[in-house]
Amino acid sequence: MGNDVKIHHLEAIQGVINRMAQNSFLIKGWSVTLVSALFALATAQSNSGFVLLAYVPACMFWILDGYFLYQEKLYRRLFDHVRISKESEPAEFFSMDTTSFRNQMPSWLCVALSRTLLVFHGAVLGSIILVMILVRKSAIQ
Asked: Taking Cα atoms as reference points, which of 34, 12, 15 lies closest to residue 23?
């Protein structure tokens, strides 16, 4: 593979990696925003139902974030493969197929439960539990 072709291929893969990272960033922002909005509704109306509803977006965003991180890791493997390859068959030019790297990666669930995602999304779920306790406590009094 010529250097120009290899560089363009690496740039294309890096573009996908950047989009995955941007998606993860946006998901974290939306997670905090929606959960906070549901907290505001719960406290304004002293209704813990809104706090219970906050579990849905929190869990769904955690699942999506895990998926995007998993995909990002696959594309990083593809990037490294292309980077260190000396020659390629014409069929591999600009290939974006990551299926051959799936057996080299931990499962999607392991990635979703990685320390990075566990700390962030665990904190979101922990705050939901805390707010639920506080809203119920204030409703009793």
From this structure: 15
Instruction: Determine the 3-state secondary structure of 133 from DSSP.
Output: helix
pLDDT for 123-137, tens place per residue?
A: 999 999 998 888 777
Average pLDDT, stretch 88-113?
Answer: 83
Cβ-Cβ contacts under 8 Å for 83 (sequence gap 6 or more): 10
DSSP 70-129: HHHHHHHHHHHHHHH-S---GGGTT----GGGGGGS--HHHHHTSHHHHHHHHHHHHHHH
3-state secondary structure (DSSP) of residue 19: helix
